[in-house]
Amino acid sequence: MKTMKYNKTELAIQKLIDDGVVPGVNYAFIDEDGIQRHLIGNKQIVPKEVPLDDGHLIYDMASLTKVVGTTMVILKLVEDGKLSLEDSISDYLPEWQYPEVTVRNLITHTSGIEGYIPHRDQLDHDELIKALFGLKAGAGLNHEMHYADVNFIFLGLIAKQVTGKAIQPLIEELVLKPLHMVNSSFHPDANKCVPTTYDEEHGLLQGHVHDPKAQVLGEDCGSAGLFSNMDDLLLFVESVLNPNDNPVLSSDTVCGFYTDQTKHDLGRSYGFERINYKGMPFIWQSGFTGTFIVIIPEKKHAMVFLSNRIHPVSPNEYYIERRKPLIETYLNENK
């Protein structure tokens, strides 16, 4: 049932469907009135049209893995005294040649890591990690925010060095289990998943991660790979909105999500981007596959948006053009 409170946002989402920007959307709002969930459009449009009629279907989270999973694990290890945000990453990854880069730099995307890896998607697991270690830290260290998967791949490798366990099993153990995110995993039942890309040679990509680096790195990938659904993401978002009730992290640590965690106010908290929109701070993170979370801490409001914008083909840049005004519409309805 639609409410007037977010009428403009809902109309904007409907227009995404009408304009063919995305096949369908599973979205929800959290506010003082509770949770309002909505489902519109199709699950897929090729090779045949299938309506999106199940609100519990599982989506490829892509980079939401960074905040839902890897960020939480790293902060838990910090709380447990197993590492510090100010530690040099070379303490844990001696193959890395730039000791001035810290764990904090990675989690806020201020590491300055730069460089190009030729034929990246043709490399195997060990070759890709070796190539990543061959990148360099440039002049942007601490002074520029450059969003890059390598930061969270390194965080995953650090967590493995500290615990002896790969990052994806750690996410399952330290995050998904205590949050009771029972529908979330790295190896979902394909029949319960919304498909991403489609081509005639391979058919639908369904229940298998889309991200090329995640395909290669497997359980060592901290930047992508998680599959989840609306039920579980709402549990995660509520745990961020309610620091005293978070079963993974202390309230002080959770409140750190709300503030800038960079040395020079570069607009990043732990994992999330932090933006002050017309005097109203919010944090958000998106995933390449068509997912995003927006959280307004002061109001305890949030929006969760799940789509498969790369269906039937990637990258669908038109979605990116439409996403920012959609989020601004939602924020304006929270003023």
* CATH homologous superfamily heading: DD-peptidase/beta-lactamase superfamily
**Low-pLDDT segments, ≥5 res:** none
Oligomer designation: single chain
Helix fraction bin: 25-40%
What CATH calls the topology is Beta-lactamase
Strand-pairing-aware structural class: alpha+beta
Give a short account of the largest sheet: 7 strands, antiparallel
Number of domains: 1
Shape assignment? globular
Q: What is the count of helical runs?
A: 10
- Please give the CATH architecture: 3-Layer(aba) Sandwich
Using brief descriptors, characterize the structure shown:
Beta-lactamase class C related penicillin binding protein; single chain; seven-stranded antiparallel beta sheet; 10 helices; alpha+beta; Beta-lactamase; two-stranded antiparallel ribbon; 335 residues; Diverse_Enzym_Activities; 13 strands
Q: What does it look like?
A:
The chain has helices spanning 7-18, 64-79, 103-107, 125-133, 149-163, 167-176, 212-217, 230-241, 251-255, 317-332, and strands at 24-31, 34-44, 50-51, 58-60, 113-114, 136-137, 198-199, 203-204, 227-229, 273-277, 280-287, 291-296, 301-307. The protein is an alpha+beta fold. The protein has a single domain, classed as DD-peptidase/beta-lactamase superfamily (Beta-lactamase). It has a seven-stranded antiparallel beta sheet, with helices on both faces. Strand 12 and strand 13 form a beta hairpin. The longest helix is centred in the N-terminal third of the chain and has 16 residues, at 64-79. The protein is globular. It starts with 6 loop residues before the first helix and ends with a helix.
